[in-house]
Design goal:
Blueprint: E1 18-20, E2 30-32, E3 37-39, E4 51-52, E5 62-64, E6 69-70, E7 75-77, E8 116-118, E9 123-124, E10 129-130, E11 135-136, E12 141-142, E13 147-148, E14 156-159, E15 164-168, H1 172-181, H2 188-193, H3 195-198, H4 203-209
Parallel strand pairs: 2-5, 3-6, 4-7, 5-8, 6-9, 7-10, 8-11, 9-12, 10-13, 12-14
Antiparallel strand pairs: 1-3, 14-15
Helix pairs in contact: 1-4
Length: 214
């Protein structure tokens, strides 16, 4: 067995609420890896509606790795949401024209946090909100309705508003080993063969078995 076909938008027969995002995203500034899915009973193919204030002229990217699980209602706020902060007022007068466009800010005057990057094997829970420029490490978990305003280290569980670390899933040494193993980059046949170890908690057993996958 080689696992589900990553080219099939809906890999679960009879469950259109689960959609592999890579097959349906249209924006060139949204980059998604294989097997990453969005779970939503209301139009799961329209994942892009959850990527807000993502204007092409700004150029920021949303990058999501492989094997990520994204729950219903997760939102990504991009850099286009930002207003100029250095003036007395933050109101965007310029967007209404009729003479107000004369105060159009220069791009350098607007806050810019860079690309939003989600690693591999990340689980983002229901209604979580990811702010601009955040980087979430491999194997991290974001609890439901969290507001993520800062970077999340690999294999860390975060939650709350603002999201803060709740627990570390593995020791620092085990995290380093898992980062090196990078099972998500293995050929799908090897992933299939090693599934019992990938879903278990024995990092050393996975490391010992991973030599054949390089």
């Amino acid at each position: 067995m080689h696992g589900p076909n990553p080219a099939n938008p809906h890999p679960m027969e009879g469950f259109p609420q689960v959609c592999f995002i890579k097959n349906v995203v249209k924006s060139p500034n949204i980059i998604v890896g294989d097997y990453t899915y969005y779970d939503d009973p209301e139009d799961s193919e329209n994942f892009e509606r959850n990527v807000l204030y993502h204007y092409p002229f700004i150029g920021d990217k949303l990058v999501i790795g492989k094997f990520c699980a994204i729950a219903r209602g997760v939102k990504f706020i991009m850099n286009g949401a930002n207003h100029k902060l250095s003036g007395v007022s933050t109101y965007p007068f310029q967007i209404f024209g009729n003479g107000w466009e004369k105060v159009m800010p220069e791009p350098s005057e607007l806050p810019y946090k860079g690309d939003t990057v989600i690693g591999h094997d990340v689980w983002i829970g229901y209604d979580a909100l990811i702010m601009p420029g955040v980087q979430i490490g491999n194997g991290a978990i974001v609890s439901s309705r969290s507001v993520v305003v800062s970077n999340v280290p690999p294999y860390t569980v975060v939650g709350g508003n603002p999201a803060r670390p709740i627990k570390q899933r593995f020791t620092p040494e085990q995290v380093e080993t898992l980062q090196t193993i990078a099972w998500w980059d293995w050929p799908v046949e090897e992933i299939t063969r090693h599934l019992p170890l990938i879903v278990a908690g024995d990092v050393e057993a996975l490391r010992s078995s991973s030599a054949t996958c390089r």
